[in-house]
Amino acid sequence: MDDKQQQFAAVFEKHSNELFRHCTMRLSDRERALELTQETFLRAWKYAERGEEVRQWRALLYRILNNLIVDEYRKHTSQSLDALLENEETQVAVEGALLRDEVDALESAMVRFDSARALVALKELTEPYRTALVCRYIDGLSPREIAECMQESENAISVRIHRGLKKLRTVLK
Predict the structure, then answer these.
(1) Which residues are CB-contacts of 103 (< 8 A; sequence separation ≥ 6)?
(2) Is this prediction's pTM over 0.90?
(3) For the chain, how many structural domains are there in total?
(4) Beta carbons within 10 angstroms of residue 37's beta carbon
């Protein structure tokens, strides 16, 4: 195995679970989320094989995955995070994933409030805020990485996260 393959294998090992968790949060079909996660790595590998320089693998992977998710929404408009959260089996898995995140401030909110209640509150937020909060506090992306993925300014993402947290607190009260 050459150096490029070893590096890519390490990237896969490091990011595959978080990308799958992110995709599962956004789609209601677990199998389709797995397929899109695999497609993300396939496209990233093809990008690297063309000789393109990759400065931040994580941001590239999230950008590819988010584009695939948008394409999926366009194909199947009935699939959404709302449908995912209504699925009891997936909700339990998502709650477990949320509680494993020990670093972020949202985890302390999840501990203070019932996890199911927080997920319902998150579901009530409008899409740009919900996505920003999921990327920041569940996926652990920095505002800069989210901005690169969503192709927006870092300032716009920071404002969206701040406003989303404010709206989430209001819903939780």
Answers:
(1) 140
(2) no
(3) 1
(4) 23
Reading the block at residue 84, the tokens are 């995912």
Compute the distance between CA of residue 65 and CA of residue 8 in angstroms, rounded to an integer.
16
Tell me how far apart the alpha carbons of residues 70 and 7 are, in angstroms, rounded to a whole number.
28
Is-contact 136 18, C-beta < 8 A? no
Looking up residue 43, the CATH number of its domain turns out to be 1.10.10.10
Per-residue pLDDT tens for 135-150? 888 778 889 888 888 8
Burial per residue of 50-69, b for 16 or more beta-carbon CB atoms within 10 angstroms, e otherwise: eeeeeeebbbbbbbbbbebb
pLDDT tens digit string along 3-61? 888 888 999 999 999 999 888 888 778 899 899 999 999 999 999 888 888 888 998 99
Cα 109 from Cα 119, distance rounded (Å): 11
CA distance 9 to 138: 23
Amino acid at 139: D
**Phi and psi at residue 49, to the nearest 5°:** -65, -30
Give the range of the structural domain holding residue 15, as residue numbers without chain letter: 3-172
